[in-house]
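#lab-general

N.A. 3:47 PM
ok so I finally got the sequence cleaned up, no stray characters, all 170 residues accounted for. can someone with queue access submit it? mine expired

B.Y. 3:52 PM
send it over

N.A. 3:53 PM
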Amino acid sequence: MSLSSPSSVTVGLGSNLGDRFEALSRALELIGQEAGVVVAASSVWETEPWGFEADEQFLNMVVMVKTAILPHQLIQLFRSIEGRMGRRRHGRGRYESRIIDIDILLWEDRIISIPGLEVPHPKIADRRFVLEPLCEVTPGAVHPVTGLTAAEMLAMCDDRSDVRLSARQF
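B.Y. 4:20 PM
back already:
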């Protein structure tokens, strides 16, 4: 089953294990092949781990995808892509290093709450590593709960972790 017309979905990607650029590149390729059309992509940002300690820095980016896939199917597809790329979830509910992480951040102006998926992403406003690339792709994107734009959320964000431009777009 699919949506009658494609939706614009904002997706966050991150990697801090192995060849991080290759992981992001492969995830983008699979998303484009299986989820829809990638219509915009941010630069790649290098960031320190958020919420846990790790020696490896993350590479993060945000992409916009046009998709006709339903929300519960899209998150299942993203979990499948993560698994095929080698991500193992240990089920302890803790943050940990990962070869790839694919999160749905925003789904147009929709609020979605189903098992395994909360949109907008519950921590979007707290994470500079999401807000910096989000502002690059769509600074005027509005959080459907708070009414704040991505740029406003970034200006108000208390996260002072190190987030720096790593590379321009792929």
